[in-house]
Automatic annotation (TrEMBL):
An MF annotation (GO) of this entry: rRNA binding
Xref: PROSITE patterns: RIBOSOMAL_L22 (PS00464)
Record has Endoplasmic reticulum as a keyword: no
Self-association state and partner proteins as the record states: Part of the 50S ribosomal subunit.
Designated gene of the protein: rplV
NCBIfam families xrefs: rplV_bact
Identification of the protein by name: Large ribosomal subunit protein uL22
Alphabetized HAMAP family for the sequence: Ribosomal_uL22_B (MF_01331_B)
Family designation: Belongs to the universal ribosomal protein uL22 family.
Pfam families attached to this UniProt entry: Ribosomal_L22
């Protein structure tokens, strides 16, 4: 007696990948999420490849994981994938203290964030359009 299988949260033509505990602030990570949102995956991968931001490597790995999930787990065509959603969530914030002048201490916050990328298969555009 097992419990019923939970229904799939995504549509049949979607796949997702999640990167947790990335060592970057959500505000900085959201800049890269905005960069790839709504683009075809090959264009998004090219943009991330040549981005000068440090965390672009991790975002690219997450996007590649979402593409692999779509291809291997859900049998979607890689050439027709677009980045449907790319959103950022806050994770924990490590608090550290740094010595300052006159015996005081300055608080330093080191934030972490989560990244979720959902890719969707769109129908191929007609040749005449």
């Amino acid at each position: 007696m097992s419990k019923e299988k939970t229904p799939r949260a995504l549509k049949e033509n979607e796949a997702k990948a999640v990167a947790r505990m990335l060592r970057v602030s959500p505000q900085k990570l959201n800049l890269l999420a905005q960069l790839i949102r709504g683009k075809k995956v090959d264009k998004a991968l090219a943009d991330l490849e040549f981005s000068r931001k440090r965390i672009a490597f991790e975002v690219k790995k997450t996007l590649e994981s979402a593409i692999a999930n779509a291809e291997n787990n859900h049998s979607l065509d890689v050439d027709d994938l677009v980045v449907a959603q790319a959103y950022v969530g806050k994770a924990l914030v490590m608090k550290r203290f740094s010595p300052r002048a006159r015996g005081r201490a300055g608080r330093i916050e080191k934030p972490f964030s989560h990244l979720t990328i959902i890719v969707r298969e769109v129908g191929a555009a007609p040749a005449g359009a």
